[in-house]
Write a structure and sequence with these properties.
mainly alpha; disordered N terminus; two-stranded antiparallel sheet; Muramoyl-pentapeptide Carboxypeptidase, domain 2; 395 residues; 9 helices; 5-stranded mixed beta sheet
């Protein structure tokens, strides 16, 4: 209403009349204003500004996270590389420690099957002939005692650990060589050409020794066992009676000292082998006496592996040292020694004639060319017909 003081509407102007001078121009009609919906919402601008303000912080945090991840991956790669380097080093260190412990630990050789099958007797139960008395402390050159000192039986075959090359024809056989199965030879000549051991004519040599002992019982006398005597393999422990008795006196006077006998009696068949080896520079034999001329064939020579330890005592009992040319060799020159004879050659001639009645040899004990020709053909395994006189009674 026009007269209502509470109303703010202006008074209507009559048509054609000018508006009052102090009156304000009329306001724009309501339709000219934009609709309320067209205006942006009051909260839109602040939200947009908030997101825009928050974008740099997000990027910063994301960059920091990426940097942190990159540093962790670098550290992980470094750790993996260190572990990859340390792992083989640790394995190598463990292996080295294990090897050192194994080398420091004493080697244990497994016992042979025979020893496992049957328990060994206590040391006190061993026979007195096996135990060797300990050598005196003053003897600096004494060799350590072997595990078994029982002398070998006559002509025991097998490689020798004691052979040295001598000018009287001992073959220089390899040391610490496992035994090989024996090879059989048809003749003495084949054994000389294909073997390097006097054991190749062992059976024939046994027949010669038995026949010679039948002819002259004191020519070849068996050397009895002694605790301080070691007989090397392939050695016949026979000596002439006088040489044997003097050698026993030397051994019994020195019970704490060991003697290794590398050679004693040698038959004509064995001497033929070593003479052929020396002639052909074979088997480590530099020199050898001709068959029928060696003192080994008559039982008055022996080869000792420890000549320096025994020389003084042997020379005091009528043995003569041959010298530096054959330092292991000693000859017995006592009053009871027989003259140079060839009992073994005579024994061979008798055996040959017994087995070849139509091709006989003179039984004179001389090593002639005819005897050598028959010896070459003789069977290394022995004659079919052996000694007839029987086994001579041993003293």
């Amino acid at each position: 209403m026009a007269g209502d003081p509470a109303s703010d509407d202006p008074a209507p102007v009559p048509p054609g009349a000018a508006p009052p001078p102090d009156a304000a121009p009329p306001a724009d009609p309501p339709s000219a204003a934009p609709p309320p919906s067209a205006a942006p919402p009051p909260s839109a601008a602040p939200a947009s500004k908030s997101r825009a303000a928050s974008l740099p912080g997000a990027r910063t945090r994301r960059s920091a996270l990426l940097v942190s991840l990159g540093g962790w991956q670098s550290r992980r790669r470094a750790v993996v590389l260190v572990l990859a380097f340390l792992a083989p080093c640790a394995v190598i260190a463990v292996s080295v420690v294990s090897i050192l412990k194994d080398t420091e630990r004493p080697s244990e050789t497994p016992p042979p099957a025979s020893a496992v099958a049957s328990p060994l007797p206590p040391p006190s139960a061993a026979p007195p002939a096996v135990a060797l008395p300990a050598p005196p402390a003053a003897s600096a050159t004494a060799s350590p005692p072997p595990s078994a000192l029982t002398p070998l039986e006559v002509g025991d075959a097998g490689p020798s650990d004691f052979y040295e090359a001598t000018d009287d024809g001992e073959p220089n056989e390899p040391k610490n060589t496992p035994p090989k199965p024996p090879k059989r030879y048809a003749s003495v000549q084949q054994a000389a050409a294909e073997s390097c051991s006097t054991a190749s004519v062992e059976k024939l040599s046994r027949q010669i020794i038995e026949q010679a002992r039948c002819l002259k019982p004191n020519a070849f006398v068996l050397l009895p066992a002694r605790p301080n005597l070691v007989v090397a393999p392939n050695v016949f422990p026979y000596l002439e009676a006088g040489a044997r008795n003097q050698l026993l006196r030397v051994l019994d006077a020195n019970p704490s000292r060991r003697m290794t006998l590398n050679s004693a009696l040698r038959t004509v068949a064995q001497q033929y082998l070593v003479s052929r080896w020396a002639a052909g520079k074979r088997c480590g034999v530099p020199l050898a006496t001709k068959p029928g001329e060696s003192n080994h064939e008559i039982g008055t020579a022996l080869d000792v592996a420890e000549p320096a330890q025994w020389r003084k005592d042997l020379e005091a009992h009528d043995f003569r040292w041959l010298g530096a040319s054959d330092r292991v060799h000693f000859d017995y020159k006592g009053s009871s020694a027989p003259p140079s004879s060839t009992t073994d050659v005579l024994a061979f001639q008798i055996l040959w004639n017994r087995n070849h009645p139509t091709d006989t040899l003179p039984t004179d004990g001389r090593y002639s060319s005819a005897t050598e020709q028959r010896l070459r053909k003789a069977p290394a395994e022995g004659f079919p017909l052996g000694p007839r006189c029987g086994k001579a009674k041993r003293p």
